[in-house]
Amino acid sequence: MSTLIAVILFVGVIAYALFGGADYGAGFWDLTAGGRERGRPARELINRSISPVWEANHTWLIFCLVTIWTAFPQAFTAITTTLYIPLGLAALGIVARGASFAFRHALSRSRGELGTGVAFACSSVVTPFFFGAIAGGIASGRVPSAGRGAPMSSWLNPTSVLGGVLAVAVCAYLAAVFLTGQAQRRGSTTLERAFRRRAVGAGIVTGLLALAGVFILNLDAPRLFHQLSTAGAALLAVSGLCGLAALLLLRKGGAPVVRTLAAIAIAAVVAGWGVAQYPYLLGTHLTIQQAAAPSASLWTLFAVSCVAAILIAPSLFLLYSLQLRRKLG
Amino acid sequence: MLLSALLGAADPPQLLPAREQMAFTLGFHIILVPFGVAFTFMMLICHYRALRHDDHQAFLLAQRWAKVAAVLFAVGAVSGTVLTFELGLLWPGLMGPYGAAFGFPFAYEGLFFFLEAIFMAIYIYGWKTLPAWPHFFTGVVVTLASVGGTASVIAANSWMNQPAGIVVKDGRVTDVFPGKVFFNGAFWWEMVHMLLASYIVAGFMVAGVYAWGLLKGRRDRYHRLGFLVPFTVGAIAMPLQFLVGDTIARQVFDREPAKFAAIEMVPRTDDHVSEVLGGVFIDGKVRYGIPLPDVASILAGFRPSTPIKGLDAIPPAVRPDDAVVSIVHLAFDVMVGTATLLLLLALWFGWLWWRRREVPTNRWFLRGAAVSGVVALLSLWSGWVVTEVGRQPWTVVGLLLTRDAVATQGNLWPLFATVLVIYLCVGAGALLVLRAMHRRWLREGTEAVAVPYGPQPAPATNGRTPGADDV
Q: Of B289, B297, B288, B303, whose CA–CA distance to B269 is shortest?
C-alpha cells in the first residue's frame, strides 16, 4: 500500500514537473523576450497561453505536499527542517510570481506592466531552480531521517546545483515546445519560428546538462548514479530517445507529436529518479515502508486519488482542450 | 501586549517569529477566502438575471466582478500555497507526529481547490466563446467546490480544537479513523460559521464599493444593482450567523471549557457569572470591564445558576497566561460587537426595503454600508483570533503544545521579514490593480455594453465586449 501511495506521489511530481514546468518556463521566455516593444508579441502569446491554466498547473504542488505529509509525515518534516531555506524561497517565489502575473494581466498597457512583468519573469526562473535544488538534496541522500540536516550544504552541493539548473532548462524546453504549438494555432509564423528556435536551443542545452550530470552524479551521488544506470537505465534511454526525436521533429512541425515526445522525455527522467530511489524515500536510511503513516491514512489518500482520477482528470482535460481550441480568453 | 502574550519565559526562540508569521499570513489569506468562496455566488445571481431577463447591467456587473475575482483568486491561491509550506516549515512538530492523522482533510481541500481553479478559469475566461448556460454552470461548480474546500480546511482546524479518531501509542499515531477525524465534534458548526462568514464578508465588502458610488451620486441602475445583490446576500446571512454563533458559544462551553473560560474571563469556577464587556485580565483578576450580572451563566445554560468552569480548573502548567486571556476575551467582544452592528445595519436595510422597495437613499445608511465590509472583516479576524489564540497553549488540544510544535531549525526572523515585505508589496499591488480597474470602468461607463452571447436564445458568437478582452 505504501508503495502504491509513493507511486501516486510520483505521478503528482511528474505532473507538476510537466505542467508547472511548462508554466515556469513560459516565465523564462518572458524574461528573455527582449525590450518592451520587441518582446511584446512573445509576451502576449505567453500571457494568452498560460492565463487560464496556471493556477490549475500549480495545484499539483499542493497535491504533492499534502500527499507527503499525510502518507509520509516523518519524511515531510525531515525535508522541511533540513531544506527550509530553498523551500521558504520557493514559497516566496510562488507568491511573487502568481501575484505579479495576475497584476500584469490586469494592468496590460499601463505603467505597472513593466514592474510586475519583471517580478513575474524573474521569480519564474528562480523558483524552479529551488525546486530542482530541493530534489537534488533529497536524491543525493542529504536529508537525514530525523531532519535538521545541514541547512546550506543540503541544497548547495553539486547534485542540487545540477538539479536546479536542469530544472530551469527543462522548464524552458517544455515551455518553448508548448509555445511553438500555441503560436502555430494562433497562426503567427514569426512567433512559431522564434519559439521553435528556442525549443531547439533549450533542448540542446538540456541534453548537454544531462550529459554533464552523468559525471557530477558519479562523483557526488554514487548510489543514485549506480541506481540510475541500472534500474533507471531503461527510463533514461526512453527519455534520451524521445528528447532527441522531439528535437529532430521540431523542424518538421507536427506540434502534438513533438509535445507528447517532449513530455515523455521529461516524465521519464523524473520517473527514473523515483525508480532509482526505490525502496528508499530518503537516502538509504528511510524506506517508504518505514516512513508510511497508518494504513487508514494511506487508504484515505488512495480514495482521494481515485476521486481525483474520476473528477479532476476530465475537468483538466476540458480545461486544456478548451484552451487549445482557443475557447478561453 | 500581543508580543508579551506570545512569548513566555521558557519558550523556544522560534516560537514568536513562527506564531507572528503564521498569524500574519493567515490573516492576509483570510481576506481573500470570502471572495474565493462567496464572490462567485454573487456573480451567478447577476449572471442568472442577465440570462433570464436579458439584463445588460447585471451582465456587465457579472463580467466585471469576474475580472476582479481573477485577481483576488490568484492572490488567494498563492497565499494559500504559502500556508501549505508553512505547516512544514514553521510547525514540523505538528505535521511530523500528526500529519498522518489530520493531513488528509487537506488532500480533500486540494481536490476541491483543483476543481475550483479549473472551473474558475473556464468561467472567467469563457465569456466570449462558451454557450451561455454551460458557461453559467461552470460558475455553479466553482461555488459548490468552494463549499467542499471550506469544509475540508475547517475539518483540519476543528480537529485541532477537538481532536478525535486517532490512537496514539508512545507519542506515535498508530491508527486513524478518517470519518471521526473529519467529522470531529467541532466540525459542523465551525464549518457553517465560516461559510456564513465568507458570504457576509464578501457581501458587505462588494456592497460597500457600490454604497460608496451611491454616496458619490452615481445612482444609476448599475450601481443600485451592484449594491443590492451583495448586500442582500450579506444581510440574509447575518441573522443566521447570530443563531449559529450563539449555538457555537454553548458548544464551546460544553466541550472546550478552557477556551470558554478565557472568552468570558472567568478566574474561578462559579455560578451566577457576569458577562464582562471589555476589560482586561491582570494578575488573575478582571479589570476595567463593564460587568452584566448573571448574563454569562444565562447565555451558557439559560439559568443564572449555571456554573462555568474557571481558569483555575486548568492545570497551572497549561493554563493560558493573563495576556492570552485578555486577547481572547477582547477579540470575542470585538467579534460580537461588530457582528451586532452589522446585524443592526441588515435590519435597517430590511426596514427601509420593506417600506419603499428600493435601494435606500438614506445617507447615514449608505455610509454604514460603505464601511460594513471592513467591519465584517474585523469581525472575521477577531473570530479567528478567538479560535486560535483561545486554544493556546495547545496546538492540538490535550495532545500537542504549541511550543513543542514549533520549528527548532535555523532562524525564522529573516524569513518573516521577507514575508512581510513581499506580502505588503502584493497587498499594495492588489489595491493598485483594483483601483486601476475601477478608474477604467468609470471611464468606460455602464452603457457601452455589447451583447455577449448574441441574441437569445444564446448561441456562441464572437460578440465582443469592450474591455472584456483587454484583461
A: B297
pTM of the model: 0.90
Distance CA B296, CA B291 (A): 10
| pLDDT given at position B458 | 38
The dihedral over CA atoms of B121, B127, B133, B135, expressed in degrees to the nearest 10, equals: -10
Percent of chain B beyond pLDDT 70? 93
* Candidates B75, B88, B130; nearest CB to A327: B130
Closest Cα partner for A199 from A34, A54, A40, A22?
A22
B27 CB near a chain A CB, below 8 Å? no
DSSP A37-103: TTTHHHHHHHHHHHTTTHHHHHHHHHHHHHHHHHH-HHHHHHHHHHSHHHHHHHHHHHHHHHHHHHH
Domain ranges of chain A: 2-324
Measure Cα distances from B223 to A166, A226, B231 in Å: 53, 68, 12
- The predicted-structure confidence for B435-448, as pLDDT tens digits, reads as follows 888 888 888 877 65
pLDDT in tens, B320-377: 988 999 999 999 999 999 999 999 999 999 998 898 888 888 889 999 999 999 999 9
pLDDT in tens, B13-55: 889 999 999 999 999 999 999 999 999 999 999 999 989 998 8
The verdict on B101 touching A (C-beta cutoff 8 Å) is yes
Write down how long chain B is.
Answer: 471
Put simply, whether B204 touches A (Cβ < 8 Å) is no
Please state, in angstroms and as integers, the Cα–Cα distance from residue B138 to each residue in A184, A322, B142, following that order. 28, 13, 7
Confidence of residue B466 (pLDDT cuts 50, 70, 90): very low
* A192: phi then psi, degrees, rounded to nearest 5: -60, -45
Q: How does DSSP classify residue B311?
A: G
At residue A162, the pLDDT reads 92
Nearest to B99 among A70, A87, A92 (CB): A70
Find chain B residues with C-beta within 8 A of A95's C-beta. Answer: 78-79, 81-82, 422-423, 426
- Whether A99 and chain B come into contact, CB under 8 Å, resolves to yes
Query: Per the structure block, which three cell numbers stand in for B120?
Result: 474558475
* Contact residues, chain A, for B470 at CB < 8 Å: 108-109
The A residues from 250 to 269 touching B (CB cutoff 8 Å) are: none
**Interchain contact B424–A (C-beta under 8 A):** no
Contact B114 A63 (CB under 8 A): yes
- Confidence tier at B143 by pLDDT (50, 70, 90): very high
**CB A58 within 8 Å of CB A23:** yes
Using an 8 Å CB-CB cutoff, list chain B residues near A76.
Answer: 88, 95-96, 99
